[in-house]
Amino acid sequence: MNYYKISITSSAEMRDIIIAILSQSNYNGFEENDFGFKTFIEEHQYEEAVIKSLADQFDFSYKVKLIPNQNWNAVWESNFQPIQINDFCGIRADFHPNFPNVTHEITINPKMAFGTGHHETTLSMMEIMQDLNFQDKKVFDYGCGTGILAILAAKMGANSILAIDYDPLSYENTIENCKKNNIEQIEPRLGELSVVNDDEFDIILANINRNVILNSLPSLFLKIKETGQVLISGFLKSDIALMTSTVEKIGFVIKKVVDKGEWVCMQLGKK
User: What's the pLDDT tens digit per position in 111-159?
Assistant: First the structure.
């Protein structure tokens, strides 16, 4: 399968808005840089008119390059850099050296499924996770991407983790990364929220996008224990009023809000 690489040059503020829009479509692997970001999409899903229309609405420029099937993953891997979050967690590929001093080290095969740990939403989720007790907890990672958050939950002591994603690439990459980290308590599952009949979760992790979260919140409310915690991310500061109104209307209480750049993460509870 061939992919298109779209390199977008924009301001940091505009970058977050464009990523938020594209992440609701079929784009994968957002790689941010000092000038904007790069993203990838399957050749048959790319529509020039969509990018051109966005460029007409917002202030950015872009370049498009076709990446043949045999090369696209190598291109992605070559750009992947390790991430370290203080002494709490480090994320690296197996071709990078070990971190000298971190409590939890995660090794991933950095394919282009969303969730390599670089994005502000993932970093914010990890920041809140650091202060939660995962020991012997039942966890649901909704929209697991590469499985990073599920793997971190396992390393923090969770004994039962369901990780689902609708994207076959993400599903397969999560399986691969679980094996790479010798994690057995994660059950990867391919599909939408409708494939999850489980409930009574202690912690739910939902790092997706605004629209999916808004549509899913009533179901997530029913799936979490009375004493449970729900972490949501993938929306912008400009969405805070809408998100706050919606979560409170459903019955959630906002416990904590963390923002990085233009992105926001919320910790929710029932009481």
Answer: 654 555 567 888 899 999 999 999 999 999 999 988 999 999 999 999 9
Residues 250 and 161 in one domain: yes
- Eight-state DSSP code of residue 195: G
Same-domain check for residues 129 and 8: no
DSSP state, residue 146 = T
| Radius of gyration, CA atoms only, the chain | 18
222 and 200 both lie in a single domain: yes
For 21-127, strand residue ranges (E) read 28-33, 36-42, 61-67, 83-85, 89-93, 104-108
In this structure, what token pair is assigned to residue 144?
Answer: 């697991």
CA 114, CA 100: separation in Å to the nearest integer?
Answer: 27
Q: Would you state the structure tokens that stand for residue 221, as one six-digit string?
A: 């409310």
Q: Residue 58 carries which DSSP code?
A: S
Is the same domain home to 43 and 95? no
Q: Which two tokens stand for residue 70?
A: 């045999």
- Higher confidence at residue 100 or residue 248? 248
Q: Domain of residue 146: give its range.
A: 81-269
Nearest to 143 by CA among 28, 60, 18: 28
